[in-house]
Amino acid sequence: MIENNELAMNLESRLSFEEFRKEVLNDYRLACDSREISLLARKEVLTGKAKFGIFGDGKEVAQIAMSKYFQPGDFRSGYYRDQTVAFATGIATPEQFFSQLYADPDLKNDPFSGGRQMNSHYATPNLGKDGNWLDLAQMKNSAADMAPTAAQMPRALGLAYASKMFREVENLHQYKGLSNNGNEICFATIGDASTSEGHFWETMNAAGVLQVPLAVFVWDDGYGISVPRKYQTTKNSISAALEGFRKTEDSNGFDIYNVKGWDYAGMCEVFEAAIRKIRETHIPALFHVEEITQPQGHSTSGSHERYKSKERLSWEREFDCNVKMRSWIIENALCDEETLLAVEAEAKVKAQEARKTAWEKYITPIKEHVQSFISLATPLLSTAGVDVSMISTAIRDLQHNREPLRRDILKAAATILLKHGHLKQDPAIAALQQYYDEYLQSEKDNYNSYLYATGVNSALNVPVVDAAYDADSITVNGYEILNKYFDQLITNNPKVFAFGEDVGKIGDVNQGFAGLQQKHGKDRIADTGIRELTIMGQGIGMALRGLRPIAEIQYLDYLLYGLQPLSDDVASLQYRTKGIMHCPIIVRTRGHRLEGIWHSGSPMGMIINSLRGMYVCVPRNMVQAAGMYNTLLQANEPALVIESLNGYRLKEKVPANMETFTVPLGIPEILQEGSDVTIVTYGSMTRIVEEAMVTLAEMGVSCELIDVQTLLPFDIHHSIVESLKKTNRILFIDEDVPGGGTAYMFQQVIENQGGYRWLDVAPRTMSAQAHRPAYGSDGDYFSKPNTEQVVKAVMEMMQE
């Protein structure tokens, strides 16, 4: 006789097995779905419906196993082969995958980029248009993907570091929508070949030092496009090469796990325990997922048969993860052959349906515009004086085009309008012109919008509050202004964190944070290693999660180390996600005149041309800098603030409203009015020009001095041209190389603002020499603009 509890145990066991069987079958179903999507998507590229394709085939099972432990609140910082992760976590659907493949500009169809990024580049929103952060702790989150290899690694560090702060800083516990007590993990994925990049090594080292919940999955398929692993990685294994980083009982570091990409059960077992440990302990881990295959090769741009041996290709067919999982299911009697065949057949149908639906959503509005164009162009055929043959050809070409593009319609309309400009008063031509203008504008909104934030998130919409001074306001050194400001800021805004090289214990090299780590703690004001790239990444990840980091680059010259993530990630983020994701990082640095080649940098042309999408603030003094920080912290946009190196010990009055006054961005300030010459500059150069103006005034020349305050944005109300209308002479001065920042300002005023119309003499630019600044005071004198040069240039303009 069987006891009741034994019956219950048997029943529970049978139910558990049934649930397990269902889960395995669902996982296999997803693996098949993703594989069929890859196969079909490649065909769409090769037939011309899509421009380029890169897919995650061969990684399906590993990504499914990983995704089982991806929880709400977690962040993904991955790369362009993570389609199965996106499907498994619910971040994306197959239909959305195809919409992105077709570059559908409708955010309803491609909710990740609105057609602005290639396929498998995923993003989830983090901030609403109302300026409020979304409930990230209840969402499965994905930082917007990038194509540059290993570019996802620096910000992955920051996404994980934010969890550490949410757990350890008590004042952050109030932000329940941003974090669940820091339990969130950042899942970073990367191809094995990309681990050769410095980004990977710097991130792994920093993660081991900081001890943050970062789970790094390396998909190892043995090649970097065509280059075998043995030419990429020491010891032919990234996990073996990293062995010295392994955490031990008495050291920091990270855990290392090795799994096979085709071993479904083995991966699930390792990942479950390992991910739980990361979540609980915040000890990072590297998962080396080996023996991955790549059935379709690297991308649609080539064939892997060109560089893989027959033996390798045979092995890849045998160890294909879907094939191996299928065999494992059969061997363990989890499902019969007939059921699996049905699953595989169903996957083909589902992929076709997703493709068809996505294509119809993409092509239908274009075809509707084709019909609109034809309906407007056809009446032109009976209009006197038109080129009937040309118009007929344009109509016929669009009618016969099975896959028209928006540009085809616009080019056809523009060609007709240009050819018949003499008939612009004709009602039919006027109707086509109106259609063309409206359609062109709507598509510009589709493709050229959201470089910067709008509405309450925009720094340009922060109310202006002038600095106020009491009768007894004291005068102190510039660095003391910043020190007082940062002290109040850290005290009153728990989301603000400052970190960088020497920022903590000694309070930065120019004492802006002196004594503040001791007052506010090592979490709020932190020292870092010499690792500019991941200092930027640390700030990027924190900002993506709703914190307000001030990430410091010690000297502007070293911004080059951190420029890549700022350019490729931060500056393009709002644009490439069509406004759904924001990263309000503030990068603090110092530059311009000092001493020596690598401590006197002012590479503004490089910066403004690589950081479109960020604000670039160039304050001339520290009060102005504090006001800019206040402005930025009331908005949700990224910025670079470059303090003047030689301004820290200049005396300034302390504003009474230090916490609340703001400096408007994009609004130049007239420092001195004049009537003969307009001089446009910024930063440390304002003081050189002021010295020169004393001499010029003695010589009877009246100069109007304008400090642009910010280079991005630049003079949004076109106020500089108003000065030029008065003086009819203009000189642009800065410390960049010739053709750098001055050429940019020149173009903005003379071309964009139409300043050329008000010139009596040729406009001038004055910059530093083409070489790096030489060391010493004489080196500075001969390398950068000096007082005498300014006087000489102005006098030449007066005499011209």
Automatic annotation (TrEMBL):
Cofactor: thiamine diphosphate
UniProt domain Transketolase-like pyrimidine-binding: residue ranges: 476-650
Key words of the record: Oxidoreductase, Thiamine pyrophosphate
Superkingdom to which the source organism belongs: Bacteria
Record SMART domains: Transket_pyr (SM00861)
One protein family per Pfam: E1_dh
Record-listed E.C. numbers: 1.2.4.4
Record-linked SUPFAM superfamilies: Thiamin diphosphate-binding fold (THDP-binding), TK C-terminal domain-like
Reported function: E1 component of the 2-oxoglutarate dehydrogenase (OGDH) complex which catalyzes the decarboxylation of 2-oxoglutarate, the first step in the conversion of 2-oxoglutarate to succinyl-CoA and CO(2).
The protein's name in its UniProt record: 3-methyl-2-oxobutanoate dehydrogenase (2-methylpropanoyl-transferring)
Protein's organism: Chitinophaga hostae
